[in-house]
Amino acid sequence: MGVTDTVAVGGTEVRLDRSDSSHVVGAPEPARLARFLPGLPTLVGLFEFVLLYGLYKFYSSIRNGVGWEDRATAYETGAAILRVQDALFLSWERPLNHWVASSDVLSAVVAVHYQSFHFWLTPLVLIWLYRRRRAHYRVASAIWMGTTFLALIGFYLLPTAPPRLMAGEGFVDVMRETSTWGWWATSGAPGPEMISNQFAAMPSLHCAWAAWCGAVVYLLVRRTWVRVLAVGYPLSTFVVVMATANHYLLDIVAGVALLVLVAGLVVLVDRQLRARREQAAPA
């Protein structure tokens, strides 16, 4: 039998086996290991905070870097998207926007949806994952951050004016029409101007985040009514972003496709890493 040591880790006594594997050159002694383990969550949390802060700074640099040439490109891209959709009879945002704008009640409902759920549900799902589904948190959060990062690159490379800014196309800026409720009146976008990029339509990060929330909750929760809500949330978001004239149908398709692509890559890498760890583990 190997020699064992009993140490305290986070207030709990843990028995560490000091057999052959503990005498590998460079392996930490049990006491040093016990002192290091409690600090791991803090280090991981700090690393993730740095990543999120980096994403915010990246977004800010993109927002602040929109010049007149980029604005011209944004309007040209928006016009091109409309031409393609009109040719394929896929401009669903037109009838949706006109239908919603014709009703004060519908306008208020979609405005509340657009300016609230997107900014509250995503962080709540991240917190829920970290606290209640820790085993799935790393992969799920990596998918979310990867999708966000690539979408920000898309905003930089392809600035796109949303339908509500396309003069002469007949769209109604629903968010602006309902701005007496308290959101930003001049742009139609919710929240202060400092966090809003007016030409970040392609791909739709709004819809990518909603699809991420819905997929995560649907896959990790077994209650039927919760799963119904998980499916309904992204679907309602797809309708709302078009009804408010904030996104084209192709923006939604691009956002969801980006999420699926990133999810596939992250899951593939995670499986390969797990397989390597299993192969390296002692029999």
Low-confidence stretches: 7-12, 16-41, 187-195
Helical coverage, percent range: 55-70%
Q: State the end-to-end distance.
A: 17 Å
pLDDT average, as an integer? 77
Query: Helix-strand pattern, N to C?
Result: EEHHHHHHHHHH
Helical stretch count?
Answer: 10
Please, how many domains? 2
Strand segment tally: 2
Rg estimate, integer Å? 24 Å
Overall body shape: globular
SS content category:
mainly alpha
For the sheet with most strands, the description reads:
2 strands, antiparallel
Order of strands in the sheet with most strands: 1-2
User: Per DSSP, what share of the residues sits in E-state strands of 2 or more residues?
Assistant: under 5%
Short description:
By secondary structure, the protein is mainly alpha-helical. It has helices at 30-36, 40-64, 68-87, 93-101, 104-132, 134-157, 174-177, 205-220, 224-243, 249-280; strands at residues 3-9, 12-18.
Describe the structure.
This protein is mainly α. The protein folds into 2 domains: 1-46; 67-280, no CATH class. It is 66% helix and 5% strand. The chain has 10 helices and 2 strands. Strands 1-2 form a two-stranded antiparallel sheet. A hairpin with a 2-residue loop joins β1 and β2. α4 (93-101) packs across α9 and α6 (134-157) packs antiparallel against α8. The radius of gyration is 24 Å and the shape is globular. Mean pLDDT is 77; it is low at 7-12, 16-41 and 187-195.
